Amino acid sequence: MQPGRMQEAAFRAKARRAEGREPMEYLDDLARIASAVRVAAAAAVDDAGMPASCLAEVAGADGDGLYVLVDRESECCKLLAARKCMALTGADGAFADEGAALSLRGRVEEAALEAVLAFADAPDAGAALRAAGCTDIAAFRLYQAAGELVEHRGGQALRMPVRFGEERMNAGVKARSYIVTDECDGCRACVSKCAEGCIDVSMVPAVIDQERCTRCGNCATACFQEAIIVVK
């Protein structure tokens, strides 16, 4: 087993021990994410690589994925519909004794708003958007994603790596790790592309924290030296 895979396996085992149970089933996992953070920010990029973001609500989840509501008139919504990719971040109870922070990125498809509202976990789904002046709500299904859910209780934080929808992936996220080779010249181009901030460039070659890496591959794409490679 490669070092990165060993670290990831060890971290998952540690997280399971912290909760005193085995990993959650698929539906339980999504339901937990949906209930942890309700109000978030969704983001997408345009043709020039510039980001656009908007207010988003996590309405609920089912066997097909996580459902997110946004303002249909926003530039972000138009990009989500065109690009079919979303970054989703949010936090709840950041300054309270208990709370959670969510960070996901993945693939989306448009969903029927009426159907989403009919089974939404929150009875007031869409309330935050309407309070912000939104009169036309669009729904998206995040059907494949990777990221992290961080829950804090009583001064302790539990990090839960999140990956779902892998049966629809082109390549299995779990089956790969990104490492930096000796070709790295310390240019730091990869740092700005890492949403998780898990690349340590205090040394050359840089080092990727495998416990926090979501395997999105943005760092490898940004590397001018092609120093970041995939290890199966």
Compact summary:
It is built from six helices and eleven strands.
Question: Which features would summarize this protein structure in a list?
Answer:
single chain; 232 residues; Pnp Oxidase, Chain A; 2 domains; 6-stranded antiparallel barrel; two-stranded antiparallel sheet; 23% helix; disordered N terminus; 4Fe-4S ferredoxin-type domain-containing protein; 4Fe4S_Fe-S-bd; Split_barrel_FMN-bd
* Helix segment tally: 6
Shape: globular
User: What does the largest sheet look like?
Assistant: 6 strands, antiparallel, barrel
Q: Tell me which CATH architecture of the largest domain applies here.
A: Roll
Mean of residue pLDDT values: 80
CATH topology of the largest domain: Pnp Oxidase, Chain A
Distance between the termini: 9 Å
**Uncertain parts:** 1-25, 167-174
Computed over alpha carbons, the radius of gyration is: 18 Å
Order of helices and strands: HHEEEHEEHHEEEEEHE
Number of domain units: 2
> Strand percentage, roughly?
35-45%
| Name of the top-level CATH class of the largest domain | Mainly Beta
Number of strands: 11
Estimated structural class:
alpha+beta
CATH H level, superfamily name of the largest domain: Electron Transport, Fmn-binding Protein, Chain A
Strand order of the largest sheet: 1-2-3-6-5-4
Query: Could you estimate the helical fraction of the residues in percent?
Result: 10-25%
